[in-house]
Amino acid sequence: MLTSFISLSASSEDVDSSYKISGNVFTSDGNQAGNTFIKLIPRDSVQTGGSGTYEITDVVSGEHIIRAYFLGDGHTTSYRKIFVNEDMVLDWYEGHNWVTLEMFDSSGSYLDYSPTTTVKLVEANQSKSVVNGRSEFGPFDIGEYYTLRAYYGDIDHSTQYIHFKMEGSTPNDFSLKHGMNSKYGFITSSNGDAMPGVTVSNGTFQTTTNEDGFFLINNLAVGSTQSFTFKSGNVEVAPPLTLDVVSGPGWMNISASENVRYPDSPQFLLETQTILNSMLPIEIDWIGGNNTLFYTLTSNGEKLYEGFGESFTFDTNESGIYEFQIGASNANGTSNSTQKLFLLVIPEQTSSDLWKSGMSWDYQIFYSPVSASLDVDGIHNATYTVIGKEKVEDSFGYQKDTFLLRKNDEYHLDREKSYQWIDSDNLWPLRTYWEDDPTSSSYFQEGTLGWNLTNEQGDKVNIFDSNGKMYLHFNRTNIIGVPGHPNGYDDTFNLVSIQRGVMVDTPAGIFSTTYITITDSNDGVISWELWYNDTVKNWVKKIDRLPGSHADRVEYHLTSYHIPLTPQFITQDGANYISNDYFIEWSTFKDAESYNLFQDGELIYSGNLTSFYIEDQDDGNYKYELYAVLSSEASIRSDSISINVTFTPDMPLFVTKSQTIKYGKAINLSWNYSEDIIWFSVVAENQDGVKTEIYNGTDNFALIDDLELGQNRLRVKAQLSNGKISEFSDSLFITVVENSEELPTLSPIFIFAVFALLSIFRSTKVEK
């Protein structure tokens, strides 16, 4: 694959001109790639769309960071540094990146071009001379290791080496300076496993080993003596090492004397959800793994709990968004849960609010380009339902009253969740949150927005109560919880205009609306068009040209809306639960003194709360109806909802680690499980594939002394008190060896002594 960096000649008259970067995008095998975002940081991205080409204009000379994000081919990224002083053609290949470098003399000045001062990418056997002190190699596979060798032929024929892993999410850019060299290597445990997270330090510089156990410390003075330490947490995993830095390769592989074991990452058993203040307190529980000494639970960065338990009772008097993280710790460090838990605590609503819990709006959403959508035509149908009201902080730091909406998209998976916090005055989003179904990924997205609307005098105003010229400062930060995916940021100044009585046609009907346009003051582009109707109490149409997603433009067309005149469930109709414990929730109904909740025609709750907790539910489909009981003793019935429960038990989790034992030796097996059980069953599978049940009982431990020689694969499953049987656990491997295999090598002296004793014994026996 040829390097894709080509300089085109620029006119000598255009010394102060800006330049152009253009090129193509390809898949890893060289075919045209799908839609790809090319971003010259910090400018906006350009898209290749279906053409496979891009162009960025008005680029000033100098160093820049540029990024390719392959939306249509694996969601991978490639970041690299470039130096622009001419028009450039820069092609990109998915899964590949460049290494860039600068070479300096001992005084720190760029080295000039010379055929005898070169840099070489050893694995590719490619050598180059630097131009203006710079050079590059690529594109090469991301995730592979490569070696740079600098040769200072014009100075003293010394060499400098750098070994590195090609990254995609950061530029691979290095400084090479005469008189300096590197130390690098892999740290492995006593049994040969890679050791990530080990801190390597010489007292001045420090780095941490990556997932392969690799480290690199660059630009150490040749001729100096360096002392290195190797620690994981507070544990010294290898003795300190002192050595001299010399010219040439800088390998320094370390075999650790300590086999550091980190705790397994714990996992929340509770899922992200909304709850009313009246539903608190709530039990937050989790399950841990091996090598755990204690747990630490934090909420919004503050420690709530530290101890040995696997649950915590959370209570608060304040509504808001509570973000929880659980970490497991031992002497070597801490492992956090891969997925956070969010609880959206909301207060009861007042009767004066514009929106009430249970109100909902259905929209047909059009994405452009269609590649930004899961639908082949770029069309989604989604419902937005009011859940409650709470205060949040916008991106400008102001506390705002908001309505909390739940979004249900036809393409959402069962446990996928999406929420929006809408400004109660201007009906613009101030917060957004999305998380994927845990069975699909641990990805999430969290947005914080600000809409600072002022009149000509600079006073804050409400969009629906104002006339005349208005100005809007818009700000948004999108945190994208996808590995390698860049976060998003927007900050614009805009002009706002309003027209009243504008008719608009939608699938839900023809409406008289307040029409609002928001125009970017910088480029004159209309970023938003909004049509509001008083009867619908929401936008009946929206066009968003700054959606903060992979789309260039998103349109919303109202298809129907529901303003309830009957009690409304907040629990989603048609929800599928894999837990047999769950809440049924409903919104407050005006003038209701109490509520009666029916399950399949049977009264299961009567009282003045707005939720009911159901425990140990059997599998099946359940129909719920709610009656609001008024002071006159009259009852108003809700529409019914259906909930499907398919309880899926968790698997047991072995505490015992895989290991090798001698034949005939007993091993104590143990495992964790949080449900009520009738029995546990442990099955051993020998190296011939024969399976045998070696334990059946109610204890979560067993002493086993009859495993067969060779490798034994052990798994455990449980039958619960409700009759459900879990899946088998992850495998535990116990290798049984003959006693002789573990004996130490016998020394010649020991062997001689044994033979001598045998000779004496035989002589004695003959004499007798």
Concise synopsis of the structure shown:
The chain is an all-beta fold.
Shape category: flat
Number of domains: 5
Distance between termini?
A: 86 Å
Q: Tell me the strand percentage band.
A: over 45%
Total number of beta strands? 60
Q: What's the alpha carbon Rg, rounded to whole Å?
A: 33 Å
What are the salient characteristics of this protein?
flat, disordered N terminus, twelve-stranded antiparallel beta barrel, 768 residues, Immunoglobulin-like, disordered C terminus, 1 helix
Overview of this protein structure:
The protein has 768 residues and is an all-beta fold. 3% of the residues lie in helices and 54% in strands. The protein folds into 5 domains: 1-94, Immunoglobulin-like (Sandwich); 267-345, Immunoglobulins (Immunoglobulin-like), CATH 2.60.40.10; 349-562, no CATH class; 575-645, Immunoglobulins (Immunoglobulin-like), CATH 2.60.40.10; 653-742, Immunoglobulin-like (Sandwich), CATH 2.60.40.
